[in-house]
Design goal:
The complex is a heterodimer.
Chain A (H helix, E strand, L loop, with lengths): L12 H17 L5 E2 L2 H4 L10 H10 L5 E4 L5 H11 L2 E2 L7 E5 L24 E5 L3 E2 L6 E7 L7 E6 L3 H9 L9 E6 L2 E5 L4 E5 L2
Parallel strand pairs in A: 2-3, 2-4, 4-5, 5-9
Antiparallel strand pairs in A: 1-10, 6-8, 7-8, 7-11, 9-10
Chain B lengths: L9 H16 L2 H12 L4 E16 L8 E15 L11 E8 L3 H14 L5 H28 L15
Antiparallel strand pairs in B: 1-2, 2-3
Helix pairs in contact in B: 1-3, 1-4, 2-3, 2-4
Classes of the chains: A alpha/beta, B alpha+beta.
């Protein structure tokens, strides 16, 4: 590991980790709403290559030596060193992980079987996916998939547009609703913005 | 630490190990006299702010036998990065590590900053004479004084062999 080349972590570790944690609580409580990283975090955090600043902030806020993390194609030695140095987290294979960091392009429906799904007695053992997407928001575009969301935390309906992810992946995400409370939670990251889709949220695909 | 510089060999690692040990053990007063004027000329970026934690110390009796835990010690560690002053200036960034016994955050910062500067080839010779040499003398003097203090109460035990067994 070449220490001198590592990007810095949070400028103010305690307060910035708390601010990011609050941000995560908010988006988990209101699925589908898009939050932006607090300005004091986005203004100072250098993200390592291969992952967005929002994903980097979430990992810095939550990861520690007890977390089992899997990193998909973004797993460069520099990213692994960066995570190890700033959080002490261990990288593990996909099927053993509590948290998984993926790039939207590598997620296909068939990946769904690789992760632990939890069981009815311990549904919390299912992992959370942290996904870097190229587009996240409300405006419909041709390359993005529109989602209609309903469920706990959503008064009537919530719309969310997510780019870069395969429709087959979303069909698997919808299929997991039948197995509730088992299933994975999703945190979608795009630049400095992030949104969450907990397993309790019911998803429908819309056109555009 | 597999690739510190492109020209890394065991020699420079050994040298760094020696100066880190010296910086970590040097008397605080001496460090406080030498470090601030040197460090003030350079700018550092904090990679890991000073943090206090515990390490488990392990030991073996007489360098043999099984390892056991001798106890926990409080340490403070810190990592700083030094970049060449001007953006266009030649030279690489270096990262310095400070790890000292106790909870003295300022001392950990000094050690990290000086370690980063000692890795800069252009600065190393100057710092060797201006910093490392006086610190080594001070550390040796401190150890000698302590040794002399302890020697005053030393008791030597001799075991006399009975004549018969000779």
């Amino acid at each position: 590991m070449r220490l001198a080349a590592l990007p810095a972590g949070f400028a103010n570790p305690v307060q910035h980790a708390q601010a990011v944690f609050r941000c995560l609580l908010d988006i988990m409580a209101r699925p589908g709403t898009v939050a932006t990283l607090p300005p004091e975090v986005s203004g100072t955090l250098q993200s390592p290559p291969g992952c967005s600043r929002a994903a980097a902030a979430v990992l810095l806020a939550l990861a520690d030596a007890d977390l089992r993390l899997h990193v998909g194609t973004a797993a460069t030695p520099l990213l692994a060193d960066w995570l190890r140095f700033h959080s002490g987290v261990r990288l593990v294979p996909e099927e053993a992980a509590d948290w998984l960091l993926f790039d939207a392009a590598e997620l296909r429906a068939e990946r769904f079987g690789h992760w632990r799904a939890g069981d009815d007695e311990a549904p919390h053992t299912a992992p959370t996916l942290l996904i870097d997407v190229p587009l996240l928001g409300l405006a419909a575009t041709t390359e993005a998939i529109g989602l209609q969301l309903a469920g706990p935390g959503i008064e009537v309906q919530q719309r969310l547009v997510v780019g870069g992810m395969d429709a087959s992946f979303w069909r698997q995400r919808i299929a997991q609703q039948a197995r509730f409370p088992r299933g994975v939670d999703l945190v979608l990251c795009c630049g400095d913005r992030l949104a969450a889709l907990p397993r309790s949220t019911r998803v429908q695909l819309t056109e555009g | 630490m597999t690739s510190m510089h492109t020209s890394t060999d065991s020699n420079t690692d050994d040298a760094r190990r020696r100066w880190l040990a010296l910086l970590a053990q040097a008397p605080r007063a001496e460090l406080a006299r030498h470090a601030p004027p040197i460090v003030a000329d350079h700018r550092f970026e904090t990679l890991r702010a000073p943090e206090v934690g515990l390490v488990m110390l392990r030991s073996r009796i007489g360098q043999r036998g099984d390892r056991y835990n001798i106890g926990e010690a409080t340490i403070t560690r810190c990592v700083l990065r030094h970049r060449p002053a001007e953006p266009g200036e030649p030279g690489e960034a270096t990262a310095g590590i400070g790890c000292v016994l106790g909870r003295d955050e300022e001392r950990a910062r000094w050690v990290a900053a000086l370690d980063a500067l000692l890795q800069v080839p252009a600065l190393h010779p100057v710092l060797s004479t201006r910093l490392l040499a006086p610190l080594a003398i001070a550390l040796a003097a401190q150890r000698a004084a302590r040794q002399a203090q302890v020697d005053g109460s030393r008791v030597r035990f001799e075991t006399l062999q009975p004549e018969a067994t000779r």
